[in-house]
Input
Amino acid sequence: MKSDVQKLMQKFKDTDIPIIEAAFVKVYLQKKNIFFENSRFICSYLERVADRDAELYRYIFDSFHFGQIDDLIGIFELLLNSENKKMNGMIYTPYHIKKYIIEHVIVQNEIPKVVDPACGCGSFLLTAAQFLKERYGLSYKEIFGSYIVGFDIDGHSIEKAKVLFNILSLEEEGTSIEEGCELHTVNSLQELSKKTYKNRYDVVIGNPPYVRAKNMEKQVKESVKLWSVVSGNVDLYIPFYQLAVEILKLDGVMGYISPNTFLQSVNGKGLRNYLVGRGYKIAVLDFRETKMFQDISYYTCICLIFKGKSTYDLDYALLNGESSLDKYEFTTYNIKNYPVNKEWRFGNSRIDDIIRRIESQPHRLEDYKIRNGLATLKNDLYFFSVKRVDNNYYYRTYRGEEVAIEKEICISVAKPNIMRTEKDLEEKIEKAIFPYKAGGKIIDENELSFKYPKAYDFLLSNKQLLLERDKGKAKNYLFHTWRREG
Output
């Protein structure tokens, strides 16, 4: 469908997008035999398609086929220009993702009030309305009038949401809802920060805007600062998590599809600290290795937050492709003791625990001022593979001859560039002649010849090669030492 829309856009490039959208709506209504003449709202909306647009209408009628209303939502998303997407982060959510989230957050016995704080054209809310109708037996007039709420900063998106809600009601029930729906054109981060919205809704759903800090408009940047989870230059979706939690009732549930960067990124630490501090039960289904949105570079996850459950449990599942929503297993982590400001790593609880313990150590490698690692400028002399070993010596081969080297002057060396698995760490480990004492003090030549005569004789026999390192420029080096010590 994407290529078909691109061809249309090229052919009718001088036609305003709202007119093209209205032409699609008109074709959808007629192809689906939906009677809409009694809807003042829809009739008024379609008036923008004038007689001069007959060619556009006919082209759409002949070129496009519709199975369900989600196809029309997909068209609306494809008609968005790239600048609008970049500035407002509008991304269409696949139906199976919406369905999964809604089925896992609308779990109340009583009819919940459902809100999407960045609803766009209302895709999530429309699917939620279908679910509410099926589960609670309500009419769409009741659902959209009392149980569905949407906010969005873009007024044109809110208009499209109203159109879609009316089409759904007309198609399934034969009546329109007209203006009887609670949709608001506002800056949600600003409006919903007010106390009147705190603890107000049963369910929050959505696909918060994917906008990088550098692409935010000035007004939006200012409203982002209203939320305590914001640290540094955050992407726009991050404060929408705190917003969701704040506007939920005490037993409410949130379900988002969003970038997964908050799990480990530096600018996600405020959100991680916020969630740990409150201890809500969380479920994360991570599409870490699968891009769910073709035109978006982000990797995404589904995140569910159960505000009424203070367990500190986080259920994590790594998904492999879209179909894995039907077959996955959670691993449960307790995040109560996760270090402040540190990333969340999930996947293998045993390995993750080891990494956390390493990161929690009081001493770090950086404390030791490591500059260049191991740099001898003559590795083939100092580094070697052990051919055999006895109580006192390692035996190596150099230029076809076996050479003994005292064990006590050797250290173990692992080259990261050839290590791929734990087995490599066992099989590819090497030894190195290390003419230094604890603290990096050089073993002088007299001591070396007395304590380690085998190693000394080997180095002495190659003295000329060792002196030629750095093309002989480094005159202050003793011949037997490394040219650069980590």
User: Anything to note?
Assistant: The mean pLDDT is 89. The CA atoms of residues 98 and 127 lie 7 Å apart.
